[in-house]
Write a structure and sequence with these properties.
275 residues, PH-domain like, four-stranded antiparallel beta sheet, four-stranded mixed beta sheet, 6 helices, 8 strands
Length: 275
């Protein structure tokens, strides 16, 4: 089953890419050839989907992880989370914020830039729709791609709004939209300082999570934790720089949580000998 699904993936993707290139460069394709190729591709994708469902039923998520390459899973997961963010945004709900948790947003400073990108994408969509109106097939392909691009751009911002940083009783969950989610146990945080930075140079053991090219809070850890990138790359970090719309409030709340954590984990005073 797994060998068959890998073979189908190696067939469907090159065929679709070749077909897209032919259409983009203007190679004339008879309608029956185009319909036939697309019908075969859809059938193979359906078989692939059924196969994944069977693998998941038999072996759960572990079996799917073994079959699907990690970068593919992470990219698809990123887009699913972005689209899910749109649903949460419309419903005015937040992800991962439980009763008793404190949520701190970070999306305010990037909103203007992302809305500007969305506006440019909309203008491009309209312009291409007018320019390609005499090429129905190419017009349909570019229209679908452009509309999906606009929706995905809105989803990226929606994910940032609906997935805030979350401070719970035992951890700080640092997030950045749909592509960064780092849980830092409170007992590993040595200090939190309010440092607003607009330049971030790559350094060993340092993780920068800027929003609108800035970070406003720096966390120093007592021991490294593993940070996972968008494509699955892993590296240990001991310094985390993040951004918050209200860094002073986040720092104050984090200070109180750290004090409670230290009080809970402090050793009990030694008892003297009985009188």
């Amino acid at each position: 089953m797994r060998a068959l699904m890998r073979a189908l993936a190696w067939v469907v993707v090159p065929v679709e890419l070749a077909l897209a290139v032919c259409l983009l460069v203007g190679v004339p394709l008879p309608p029956h050839v185009l319909v036939g190729v697309e019908a075969v591709a859809v059938a193979l994708l359906a078989v692939e989907g059924v196969g994944l469902a069977v693998v998941y039923r038999r072996g759960g998520r572990a079996a799917v992880r073994e079959l699907v390459p990690e970068p593919v899973r992470l990219i698809v997961g990123h887009e699913v989370r972005a689209l899910h963010g749109l649903v949460l945004w419309v419903a005015r709900r937040r992800h991962g914020v439980r009763a008793g948790d404190l949520a701190f947003g970070y999306a305010r400073d990037q909103a203007a830039m992302l809305y500007g990108f969305v506006f440019v994408c909309v203008v491009e969509t309209v312009g291409l729709a007018v320019l390609l109106r005499n090429f129905p097939t190419l017009h349909a392909i570019t229209l679908v791609i452009d509309v999906y691009g606009v929706v995905l751009m809105l989803g990226i911002h929606a994910a940032s709004v609906t997935r805030p940083h979350v401070l719970s009783a035992d951890a700080l969950r640092v997030r950045h939209g749909a592509h960064r989610d780092l849980r830092i146990p409170l007992h590993l945080i040595a200090s939190a300082s309010g440092q607003r930075r607009f330049t971030h140079e790559a350094a060993d053991g340092v993780l920068d999570i800027p929003v609108a090219s800035q970070t406003s809070l720096t966390l120093e850890l007592t021991e490294p934790i593993m940070a996972v990138g968008l494509l699955g790359g892993r590296r240990p970090v001991t310094t985390v720089r993040l951004h918050s719309d209200e860094p002073a409030k986040l720092r104050a709340a984090l200070g109180r949580a750290l004090a409670l954590t230290q009080a809970r984990t402090a050793p009990s005073p030694s008892q003297g000998p009985p009188a």
